[in-house]
Design goal:
Helices cover 66% and strands 2% of the residues. β1 and β2 form a beta hairpin. It has a two-stranded antiparallel sheet with strand order 1-2. The chain has a single domain, classed as Hypothetical protein af1432, CATH 1.10.3210. The chain contains ten helices and two strands, in the order ββαααααααααα. The protein is globular, with a radius of gyration of 17 Å. It has 226 residues and is mainly alpha-helical.
Length: 226
């Protein structure tokens, strides 16, 4: 579908499609009431990796720290065009912004984004639109991309003020966002681990796969017991 990378050896299209599908499945299996939001968050969470600067680093087997900040800034426009309710958009945006905070705080990610200076403000929007459309099963258009670091930070701040600032005092939104963030962290890590070039899988990834299988078994048992 596209030659864009999620990291060295892993196509971005594969990563986004797999995380989206798995996140939806996990949210549904856990009966969180967040299946659609998980699908959308999974499809959008790593859009920032499509930046030309990130792609250059992945080609050299380097990372692009802070890419979720780019994803956050770009995803807002997609969510507006999808016409999602404001609360759902806030939940998805918060999950996208936080999906690497199991490893580092947002301030640390901002620092790394600034220090590494990989962001170039260029991306193949047609390729990214095609990937997201495939993941969501409907036509989606990504129409704009921050042109430089200053515009990126300004856009991210505007999105935060418009969609997320007021949500800080809403317990319901915060709870849903934390649940969705957990789903996104788990599925993002699992897909990346399962697609590793070495063929070795982490203990966490193996345990997660067993968890999915146990959920499938439980659903079959509940279905046959009715």
């Amino acid at each position: 579908m596209s030659r864009l990378l999620a990291r060295a050896g892993e196509p971005l299209s594969d990563h986004l499609l797999r995380v989206a599908a798995l996140a939806e499945r996990l949210a549904d299996d856990l009966r969180l009431g967040l299946g659609e939001q998980a699908l959308i968050a999974g499809a959008l969470h790593d859009l920032g990796k499509g930046d030309a600067g990130a792609q250059e680093r992945y080609a050299r087997d380097l990372g692009a720290p802070g890419h979720e900040i780019v994803s956050f800034a770009v995803a807002h426009g997609v969510l507006e065009r999808l016409g999602l309710p404001r609360e759902d958009a806030a939940v998805i945006l918060l999950a996208i912004l936080r999906h690497h905070q199991a490893m580092a705080t947002l301030d640390e990610r901002l620092y790394e984004l600034d220090r590494s200076r990989w962001f170039k403000g260029k991306a193949d929007l047609s390729a990214l639109s095609l990937i997201v459309s495939s993941a969501l099963g409907r036509q989606v258009s990504i129409e704009s991309w921050p042109r430089n670091r200053e515009e990126l930070l300004r856009t991210a701040m505007q999105v935060w003020q418009k969609c997320c600032h007021d949500a800080r005092g809403d317990i319901r939104i915060q709870l849903r966002a934390k649940l969705l963030t957990g789903v996104l962290i788990v599925t993002d890590y699992h897909v990346a681990s399962a697609s590793g070039g070495s063929g070795r899988r982490s203990r966490f990834s193996a345990e997660l796969e067993r968890f999915f299988k146990s959920l499938e078994k439980l659903k079959r048992e509940l279905g046959s017991g009715g």
